[in-house]
Amino acid sequence: MNTVFVSCAITGGMSVPSQSPAIPVTPDEIVEGAVGAHGAGAAIVHIHVREPSTGKPSADLGLFREVLAGIAERCDAIVQPTTGGGVGMTIDERARVVTELQPEMATFNCGSFNFGIFKVRHRPEMAPWEVEYLEGTRDYVFRNTFADMERLSELFREAGTKPEYEVYDVGHLYNLAHLADAGLVDFPVHVQFVLGVLGANAATLEQLVHMHRTAAGLFGDGFTWCTAGVGYPAEFHLAAAALTMGGHVRVGLEDNLRVESGRRAASNAELVEKALALARLLDRVPAQAGEARDLLGLR
Ligand code: KMH
Ligand code: ZN
Description:
- The chain has about 300 residues and is an alpha/beta fold.
- The protein has helices at about 25-40, 60-75, 90-100, 130-135, 145-160, 170-180, 205-220, 235-245, 270-280, 290-295, and strands spanning about 5, 5-10, 45, 50, 55-60, 80, 105-110, 115, 140, 160-165, 190-195, 225-230, 250, 260, 265, 285.
- (5S)-5-amino-3-OXO-hexanoic acid binds near residues 9, 14, 83, 194 and 197.
């Protein structure tokens, strides 16, 4: 309970690179960002990939292969690719990273919902595709139907990959309970409370407590959990709440670009350092990747 791991979401799929020069784009930059985050104390690195020439979010298996191998060569972090993908990707494209590369862990999204990033400020330096990508989310549903989730559950099991269940709203916990009732879930589960997405639940203490209480009612002590607050200061407010309540913490440029209210983060490592400083102030003991593997029951 006193040990805490920090996960770092390195680049993301629901942002465009002109939002910050710190967002890693090429495989080398993503590997560098992950190794830096791990060096700063992150036990898990959460990975999306982008087309190297444009920075557009991608689900290309070759890019995932290159990035996962590059990180594994240089550090011991738990490498957790996404199956969330980005706008316009099918569930089969999104799942291939699990079926083909069999990572020890990957994300598993627990419901369909609107996922709007159109309120991101348009900057003059944005390429036309970036503005189009942001604006396109006015009409975007992040699709994770029951059929998708049932299929994905089987694929995770076949691959021996542990899901990190991403819940963005309280109903997603009931979807997960439904999958458990159908025998598609192995306990203990690891749940990520992702709060602050436009289209899902808010990044407030009240909603975190409500969702945590709901999870405890559904799963008893059969779950570990983490928070990912989207935006600033949500990322660090939820981190502080999780540290206080016994949860784990995710930070990273996927979710938030600022390290202080008036200052953009220069790297993922800087966000990890701030999360770990908070952890130490609150007497939580940071876990290395090996201890996080034990906590999560990874192979
Ligand atoms: N993009 C985040 C809001 C995933 O990659 O599967 C949620 C996320 C999910 O990280
Ligand atoms: Zn992600």
